[in-house]
Amino acid sequence: MAAIPLSLATRRLAGILLLSIVGVEFGGRFMLTVVTRETEATEFQQSFFRAGHAHAGVFLVLSLVCLLWAEFAGIRGVLGWIGRLGVPVAAILLPSGFFLSALGSGATGPNGLVVLLYLGGLSLAAGVVSLGISLLRPADKLAPTGS
Questions:
Q1: How many alpha carbons lie under 13 Å from residue 46 in its C-beta half-sphere?
Q2: What secondary structure letter does DSSP report for 110?
Q3: Who's near 19: CB < 8 A, 6+ residues apart?
Q4: pTM for the structure as a whole
Q5: How many other β-carbons are positioned within 10 Å of the β-carbon of residue 81?
Q6: 4 phi and psi angles, rounded to 5 deg
């Protein structure tokens, strides 16, 4: 099998994403303290912490997949950048929204940082829609420069 040439930007972003999986591992350790009741948390906090941890891992993997699809298809220009960065940004915003909006002793509902969930959802949608549209376009219609 031949090697797949990757742009420098894609290689760097993929490296950062792979290293950030260690952060998800630390989140897993925190989740263990919540589940074993070493850390006190309300039912609301437990559910938001679980959601944050799950979204972080899933979106990191999806980010790596989207990078490869963008690279395979040779997607360039604005759609290429949105397609490459939309999901990784969502991988930061959505878990942050779940964790940060549930902070506080005895919290039973989200605080104002719940807005990060909406921003993360928009970033996710922008990333996958731009990548999907780009993959559906004929190759000769893709921008010749960029990324």
A1: 12
A2: -
A3: none
A4: 0.86
A5: 17
A6: -95, 115
